[in-house]
Each structure stands twice: as structure tokens, then as C-alpha cells.
Amino acid sequence: MNRITKFFHEFLNPHCEHCMEKERDEKVCDSCETLKSQIARLQFENDKLLDRILEKPKEVEVKVDTSELKPITPRGALNWRVKQQMLEAEDRERAKLLKNAPIPTEELEKELDVAEQSRESAKA
Fold this sequence. Notes:
Layout: H1 3-12, H2 17-26, H3 30-54, H4 77-100, H5 105-123
């Protein structure tokens, strides 16, 4: 439509359904455009990620030096038994030393006398 016919159309039919609908469609919302661009960006990134996930992995040869590897030996009840016997022997030795150790009776008697004297002086 040229300008003159559009002017007369709007002047004679100010609330035409077709014109109102066309105007509503032509109106651009900024937030809608922003959302559309964000959706397009996310779709692009998702496509890239999907392509990356689905691509076949590159074969990489890893050389392992097996010259220094030692066989795994089983650890079982035998090792625990040996450890238990060692601990029991150490405990017996410690008990024997404590039994044969001299008891410092003189020091204990002096401490008891000092304690007894301090109690008597506290009562008086």
C-alpha cells in the first residue's frame, strides 16, 4: 500500500481487524529477541557438545615398563599369627620387667609422711 491509501484506510477504518493483527505481528519485543538469541546459542553449544561426546576416541598407546613389577604375595592368617606371637612375646617380656623392677619404697614412704603431716597441720 502506498502512503495515501494507507492514510485513508486508517482514517476511515481506525479499528480494522486486519490492520490491528498486522500491527501486533510487526511489533518486536526486546526480551523475546534476547530469549531467541539465547536459545539459538544454547542449541549451538549443545550440538557441539553432542558431537564431541559421540566422536570416536583416538587410540593412544601407553607403554608400561613391566621389568620392575613384583608378583603379589597373599597376606593371610599366617602373617597375622606371626604378628600375634611377636606381640604376645613383647607383652610377656614387658610384664617380666615390671615384675622384677625394684619398688621405690623409701620415696613412697617419704611422700606418705609428707602428706600425713600436711593433713595434720591443716586440721590443727
